[in-house]
Design brief:
The structure is a homodimer.
Chain A: H1 16-24, H2 29-39, E1 41-42, H3 44-49, H4 56-68, E2 72-74, E3 86-88, H5 90-93, H6 96-109, H7 120-130
The structure holds a DNA duplex.
DNA sequence: AAAGGAAAGTGATAATTTGGAACTAACCTG
DNA sequence: CAGGTTAGTTCCAAATTATCACTTTCCTTT
């Protein structure tokens, strides 16, 4: 295995929930993971097109962090960045239950304050079809 | 039902995952929820004593936000703040699956970068016994 | 082989949020 | 009714996020 610098993370405690939040506890990281669940692979510019409109520097920062933590990886590890999409690792795929539980909670509990909220299944459909072009193919 | 100002939240999209993160997507909110799952009720100063050491201004801010979103509430709605603990609402209790999934993921996937991480069950034991005093009683 | 274009980032700077510490207000309690 | 506790606020410095222009690389086209 090649060298990977794991973690400049400052773990706040030994608690697994706190530690998960040390990595994933922000508004963007799990959205990157969500996109990869839905589309399997995703290029840099495709991430930028998701409806939440992540800033490019934050995207670059999160992709680096998630890669260093082994949650995502390049589809083609040692080929140039251009059109070299990202995908979930085994570890990343294991986040499925977290995303499903969060999405389900939000759909049933936030509707009053956020009337336009849609179900996970609808969200998946939307994200998939909005960009059903190349990256869904090279999976 | 009395007036509650729901949400000054800016929803980034209609996606339930993104919307959940609009509220809970930070390093602290779910830790407050975690504490309440473990201890059932929790006072302001007890939250401050949790091992991650949240700053008091952020705590106040998050308690206000989670209350306004109906995730937590005062145990004794119309009595003075002093010793008036917080607890989960029905909505808040439904976050259990999110926390469990996150904790499980972290325990199995972060151990390499965070060797001291402990299991959820151990974390629960620790938090419970570290402050098994009053607030676990008035539940 | 050079020109052009698009994709993947970087960098500069402004706005917002966080974190730490001290401070205040309200209330029990003796 | 004095003193200590508890639940916050306020202030300010530091870190993070957002906006947006810029650079670089490499792929295609001629």
């Amino acid at each position: 295995m090649a060298k990977k610098k794991k973690s400049e993370i400052e773990w706040r405690s030994e608690c697994p929930i706190a530690s998960g939040l040390d990595i994933l506890g922000d508004k963007w990281s799990l959205l990157i993971v969500r996109d990869l669940f839905i589309c399997r692979t995703r290029t840099y510019s495709e991430f930028c097109e998701s409806p939440e409109k992540i800033a490019t520097n934050i995207l670059a920062n999160r992709l680096k962090l998630l890669t260093s933590m082994g949650v995502i990886e390049r589809v083609d590890v040692d080929r140039p960045a251009r059109n070299n999409a990202y995908r979930l690792t085994k570890s990343g795929k294991e986040l499925r239950k977290v995303l499903e539980a969060l999405g389900e909670w939000s759909y049933t509990n936030l509707r009053e304050s956020h009337p336009d909220i849609i179900s996970i299944d609808t969200a998946i459909e939307l994200l998939k079809t909005s960009r059903a072009t190349k990256s869904s193919l090279n999976a």
